[in-house]
Amino acid sequence: MADSPVSPLHIVRTQSLASLVADELERMILSGEIPPGTRLNEQALAARLGVSRGPVREAVRGLDRSGLVVTVVNQGSFVRQLSAEEAMDVYDLRVALTGYACERLAGRATPEQLGTLEDMVQGMESAADSDDAARYYALNLDFHSALMSMGGSSRAVRLYDDLGKELTLFRRRALVAPENMRESNAEHAAILHALAAGDAAAARMAGEAHIRGGKRRFATSTPPAGTEPAGKKRPGKAAARGEEEHVQDRDAPGEPTR
Amino acid sequence: MADSPVSPLHIVRTQSLASLVADELERMILSGEIPPGTRLNEQALAARLGVSRGPVREAVRGLDRSGLVVTVVNQGSFVRQLSAEEAMDVYDLRVALTGYACERLAGRATPEQLGTLEDMVQGMESAADSDDAARYYALNLDFHSALMSMGGSSRAVRLYDDLGKELTLFRRRALVAPENMRESNAEHAAILHALAAGDAAAARMAGEAHIRGGKRRFATSTPPAGTEPAGKKRPGKAAARGEEEHVQDRDAPGEPTR
DNA sequence: ATTCTGCAAACTGTTTACAGAGGACATTTT
DNA sequence: AAAATGTCCTCTGTAAACAGTTTGCAGAAT
């Protein structure tokens, strides 16, 4: 009846603590607040989030399955570290996914869908003109999400997003240089053009070329070091006191088991 | 020193109970022992596996993340039910992945790798000749795994396998009709031929065509009913007594939230 | 006869408690 | 002085207990 179905008593338990913890943990990891290689101290995390260790363990187990976290028995869970090669492999998978979505969409894109994409490309152009990297970044995410959603399936969208999260483990932030924005958006336009023309082969090529371009743009603008130095510091006993500390990094195993 | 490195005290804790439970649960689900739509009763599962509810919850949470299980707050976790459309989408994703792996492999396949694949195709041919569906099935899995591993990355292999597990949720078992074996293996040979020729485009086409063929062979040999009837039985109270019962199905929500 | 209400059992979500493993530091030994 | 070793302490892994919710059934009221 009421407009807002809020229970008068306590807030309705609409989702479990474990899922909330999982979301928060994922956010912390993807934002870099907890850098790769860091050990996830269950007790500290539980205390910081105001829950017990149970939900934290469940959340970490979920992140482990989805690839953001690596667990070593009796040693704990660590934020996954992606090697440069693995990151490139992930890019390649996104190439394949994007190409496929574009190819499928070419044959059946509705004028409405094309209009939506067109608007996004326009928006990115204006963002590039005003050097608004943040806005370009957001629109770019939307564009690719829309592409996957229209051409692929919901499963494809989730896959693409998950791969993106893994990439975020490698590159701290999407480095969008001003000149890259224009180049990138030109490729967007090429995709759109092929889609509008209904040319499946061209759309696929354009989609693949775009992600490959992103991979290249990233690879050329990143430090040439093959593997990250990672945290080598050993905090000793003091850090374990945990007064304000919520995470503690030990030796930081890169990829112990997989 | 000894041949079998078994600890004299208790068996070495080489992996956690939660991971063991997760493996066992996955096996149960994929084998059909716990059919889609079934609710996973934590207490019953814990009792059956001889552990407490903690590891079971962690395992279920992991399966939820990997897509085999769907969880509803305060109602429990259910084995996921794939609709026919979703299954087709998963097939399409495998088409894309396989095509991509084949394309990449074409340029750089070593004679050794080609020999390995050749042996598998030969093995499948002999299996088809003797109508040994089980052996064909196993070799087929190996062939595709090898293809992904050689042409793609370890990430691609895992992705492909995970998608395969999801498909298993839909089709109880890979139905390999005798005539299908020959058709399927002819496509394998075509892939191999293109790979040996180093023709990337042809390899991709052949790889894609093969999975599409598998999709078609499955779609034509499956009941035309769009959605599965699923378990509609309401077991009442008797089943909940749990003397030998380890699972209990209630209303079986297909895809409550995603 | 049907529907609604109230009670009870079961199950999920969460917290708390306990045992074993691993690591860091101090001491001892060579 | 350097290496080895012993001890303590933290943290993970697991189990058990506790609170809240949902579900099913029985009985009452219409």
TrEMBL record, chains A, B:
The keyword Plastid does not apply. Residues 15-82 form the HTH gntR-type domain. Residues 240-258 have a biased composition (Basic and acidic residues). Residues 209-258 are annotated as: Disordered. InterPro entries: GntR_C, TF_FadR/GntR_C, Tscrpt_reg_HTH_GntR, WH-like_DNA-bd_sf, WH_DNA-bd_sf. It holds the Pfam family FCD. Keywords: DNA-binding, Transcription, Transcription regulation. SMART domains: FCD, HTH_GNTR. GO terms for molecular function: DNA binding; DNA-binding transcription factor activity. Signal peptide: none annotated. This is GntR family transcriptional regulator. The lineage of its organism: Bacteria, Pseudomonadati, Pseudomonadota, Alphaproteobacteria, Acetobacterales.
